[in-house]
Amino acid sequence: MTIGILEVSYIIASVLFVFGLKMLSHPETARRGNFLAAFGMGLAIIATILFHEKDGKHIGNIGWIIGAMAIGTAIGWIIAKKVKMTAMPQLVSFFNGMGGAAAALISMMEFPHVSPDLIAESGMANGHVLAILLGLVIGTVSWAGSMIAFGKLDGWIGDLRIKWMKYVNISLLVVIIAFIVFVMTRSTDTSSEMMPLIYIIFGISVIYGVLFVMPIGGADMPVVISLLNSFTGVAAAMGGFLYNNQAMLTGGILVGSAGTILTILMCNAMNRSLLNVIAGVFGGGGKQEQVAGVVKEITLADAAVLLSYSKKVVIVPGYGLAVAQAQHICHELDKLLEEKGVEVRYAIHPVAGRMPGHMNVLLAEADVPYDKLIESDEINPDLPNTDVLVVIGANDVVNPAAEDDPSSPIYGMPIIRAREAKNVIVMKRGMGKGYAAIENPLFFHDRTRMLFGDAKKTLQGLVEEVKNL
Fold first, then answer.
1. Residue 2 half-sphere exposure toward CB, CA atoms < 13 A
2. Same domain, 21 and 149
3. Which of 105, 194, 277, 468 has the largest CB neighbor count within 10 A?
4. Active-site residue, 387 included
5. Are 218 and 313 part of one and the same domain?
């Protein structure tokens, strides 16, 4: 009876995961989708505690389990409530890393307890052992890589760009695979005898997780975050196989497949190879050609006039908009312009910000209608007909060097072709470089005018000027 209730609970949880993921595809339903998926996970956890049995015995140490859950819930709640929008990518990396670490720990705990009967029947070459080893490797790589990504996004870990790093990482992958094959082909009576090999695999996986993320920089980081997220999902799915847990398996498969699809889509958007991501040679490298030209500024009053008497305006948001927390005042500006008969849209680059969908989340928080957010490849053909394009805190995603300069680290990356607009206004604090640490020729273009200052204060001043016209 209890087994039946447990299985039904897992099925319900799996269905909630599917519906929750589907609802995450649109900002208007994303909040409800997140709640549904969380409710499904809660249901699966409670059902497991109450109804799971092994050899006729229920789960023990309930007090410790509930205590650990309470502590984890409190810590997660506090962190999520206090995190700033600018630190959201770091939070995603950190939480993702914790998921990978949990999956790796499960594998390390389960390996010594592989059934002797299973080993006697089929040796170490069986699906149970394979699931453990894959969960260990993938979970460890996800944890180590996510922690490095966290440090790089937070600014206290730099890039390690060495030309031969690709070959080091590929060699480490080969060594890891060789160890997995070696473990599964060994003759042994008990799996616990091979724990030293498991620790070696763990150590090599940590090194690989660190080294494959270290060279990555510039606009490529969102792609890596997406890939690491898919790793965590796959590692969790391995745990589902181990415990015959349908909810854990379904959740892991959904996260893994969704993360993989997103990674491939973003690689295509960046004109990059998925193999290069895995090998850790994604982004960076090369020296940019010298950029020369004269920077021309514009006043708030002139910018307000130019915007107010335009027919079409496109806003390109970037990480600087998130740093300034200026999304609400930006939306106020676009509503004012629309009241004057101006068509206002937002050009969204797939990797703008520091994580996938960063700008979508930021603007959704300010209640910007979703149909006004246009992907870069869709809006680019219309930019020559755009009267004014306003760049707010974006840099690399509008950098013409990606198309014009083969020596540039971002060469080949599809961009928002801002320079094709009739007029370009760039809002920046100063002439600092973007996340890829390269100069942007757009700032010196004949049709570009710079509007220096904090994005929020500048937009507030611009709103007042537009109101006074």
1. 13
2. no
3. 277
4. no
5. no
CB burial of 193-223 (b: ≥16 within 10 Å; e: otherwise) equals ebeebbeebbebbbbbbbbbbbbbbbbbbbb
| 270 shares its domain with 306 | no
Among residues 154, 396, 404, 405, the one annotated as catalytic is 396
Residues 269 and 354 in one domain: no
Separation between Cα atoms, residue 396 and residue 417, nearest integer Å: 11
- Regarding whether 416 and 369 lie in a shared domain, the answer is yes
- Domain-embedded: residue 378: yes
Tell whether 97 and 170 lie within a shared domain.
yes
Whole-angstrom distance between the N-terminal and C-terminal Cα of the chain? 74
In tens, the pLDDT along 11-28 reads 899 999 999 888 887 767
Q: How far apart are CA 449 and CA 297, in angstroms?
A: 5
**37 & 124 share domain:** no
| pLDDT tens track for 320-366 | 888 888 999 999 999 999 999 999 999 998 777 777 678 888 888 88
- Cα 277 to its chain centre, rounded Å, is 14
Counted domains in the chain: 3
Residues 65 and 94 in one domain: no
Residue 21 lies in a domain: yes
User: Whole-angstrom Cα distance, residue 125 to residue 260?
Assistant: 27
Domain of residue 69 covers 1-82
CA distance linking residue 201 with residue 180, whole number of Å:
8
Structural domain includes residue 293: no
What average pLDDT does this structure show over 379-398?
Answer: 92
Q: Please indicate, yes or no, whether the overall pTM of this predicted structure exceeds 0.90.
A: no
CATH number at residue 414: 3.40.50.1220
Exposed/middle/buried for residue 127 (C-beta within 10 Å: 0-12, 13-18, 19+): exposed
* 356 and 390 Cβ atoms separated by less than 8 Å: no
